[in-house]
Amino acid sequence: MTSGGLNREQLAASAPGEGVHLAIAGAGTGKTRVLVERIHNLLATGAAQPGELLVLTFSRKAAEELQHRVAARSGELARGLTAGTFHSFCLSMLGQFRDEYMAAARLASFPRVLEAGERAALIRELIRARVDDFLGLPVGVIERILEELPRLKAGSREKLERTGILRALKRLDERFREEKRLRATIDFDDMMEGMIGLLEADEGVRESLRARFRFILVDEFQDTSARNLRLITLLLPPGGGNLFVVGDDWQIGRA
């Protein structure tokens, strides 16, 4: 195992060990570099085969950068490694286990992915159909509230509750889900929910993926949601398995 230009603490974090590990540090301190080096060391020492590694991050841009850095560091050693966003991983696995997914979700056919523009247009259409429910707020404002709803603080949610807007948003979400079902489509949120539901419902799929991905590595862990954590937990065997995550200590503290 080489140092790869890492300092002593980074070198220790990049060592190819087993178990559950959390590496936290401030922004710009080389966390992703440590992750890439740990991947390389797992492969170079023979501790893991490429197909046994699952590397997850949150945005498409971050995933592309991570894939590029792993390829630059490990070359052919990394061929066959699975690295991408949580959503792309979920969609890929739903496709691989399409029959099991359709059975678990009670679907007659495999759904089409709702494109971003189509999704936005559908939401606007549903808002306009019940605009009075939102006290005359502009459609664009309602869209922004809906987008930020999962991250709103308790005080803001209470204000929305008092005005009745929160109830209207919940009804909007119900209508949106029904429209997606009627159109046989799914969006990003459904990919995650569908994969979690499949893992919870089908022991065969769960054990198959646990056996395949012996090592799970997560970049930008401070961005992890409750659903992300649930997915990771379901992919790990009882007792913890092999999980390595890196994140920003200040942002984790704020979460």
Protein traits:
single chain, 255 residues, alpha/beta, 2 domains, five-stranded parallel sheet
Outline the structure in words.
- There is one protein chain.
- Helix content is 57%, strand content 12%.
- By secondary structure, it is α/β, with parallel strands linked by helices.
- It has two domains: 153 residues, Rossmann fold, CATH 3.40.50.300; 72 residues.
- The chain has a five-stranded parallel beta sheet. Strands 4-5 form a two-stranded parallel sheet.
- Helix 2 packs across helix 3 and helix 10 runs parallel beside helix 12.
- The C terminus is likely disordered.
Question: How are the SSEs placed, and which strands pair?
Answer:
Elements lengths: L7 H6 L6 E6 L5 H14 L8 E5 L2 H15 L7 E4 H11 L1 H8 L6 E2 L2 H14 L9 H10 L5 H10 L1 H18 L2 E2 L1 H14 L1 H10 L2 E4 L7 H10 L6 E7 H6 L1
Parallel strand pairs: 1-7, 2-3, 2-6, 4-5, 6-7
Helix and strand run:
HEHEHEHHEHHHHEHHEHEH
**Which residue ranges are poorly predicted, with pLDDT under 50 across at least 5 consecutive positions?**
251-255
* CATH architecture descriptor name of the largest domain: 3-Layer(aba) Sandwich
End-to-end distance: 35 Å
Largest sheet: 5 strands, parallel
Number of domains: 2
Total number of strands: 7
- Helix- and strand-based class? alpha/beta
User: How many DSSP H or I helices?
Assistant: 13
Mean pLDDT across the residues is: 91
Oligomer: single chain
- Provide the spatial order of strands within the biggest beta sheet: 1-7-6-2-3
Task: Report helical residue fraction.
Answer: 55-70%
Cα-based radius of gyration, to the nearest Å: 21 Å
Note the beta-strand portion.
Answer: 5-15%
Judging from the principal axes of the Cα atoms, what is the shape? globular
**CATH topology (level 3) name of the largest domain:** Rossmann fold
What do we call the CATH homologous superfamily of the largest domain? Answer: P-loop containing nucleotide triphosphate hydrolases
Level-1 CATH class name of the largest domain: Alpha Beta
